[in-house]
Write a structure and sequence with these properties.
This protein is mostly beta strands and about 170 residues long. It has one domain (about 1-160): outer membrane lipoprotein receptor (LolB), chain A (Clam). It contains 3 helices and 11 strands, in the order E-E-E-E-E-H-H-E-E-E-E-E-E-H. The strands form 2 sheets. It has a 6-stranded mixed beta sheet, with no helix packed on it. A 5-stranded antiparallel beta sheet has the order 6-7-8-9-10. A hairpin with a 2-residue loop joins strand 2 and strand 3 (about 30-40).
Length: about 170
Amino acid sequence: MAGTEIMVFDNYGLLEVKNTKIVLDMMGVKQETDTKVIMDGIWIYSIDNKTNTAAKMENPLFSVLPKNTDLEKIGDELIQKMGKKIGKETINGKDCEIWEVEQMMSKIWVWKSIPIKSEIKTMGMNITKIATSIEVNIAILEEKFNLPKEIDAKNLKKIDINSIMEN
């Protein structure tokens, strides 16, 4: 599997857009995905760019966070509870702390509360994601966080997170 992921976020990730293009080649069969995920606080939109269809669901984390929460502090506390710091490494000029999260069989390299690299071992596979470019304090065009014009109420499927959790 190989591909790219471009992520832009604001407000500690409560506003985020992630464009992912992946090609999976397994035993001569290729499968390509081209998706966009938009998180705008309470809603998460998952868009298939090939078919111009999308799903919408409530963000389960948004409802449990009290208003005016220090999101950076919560993120730091969460990683400290889930894992242990095992070292430091510089990646693309960023001095990162390396955290091991045993429950998720992963390691995460974190710079200023931002994951720069992750390694996950699951189902016999090793998955590595690494940021090749990091830009901070840039002007973000608001339209990046909007649904594409091709997506409308007819092809936007609403998913009930509670029914998923019950199954």
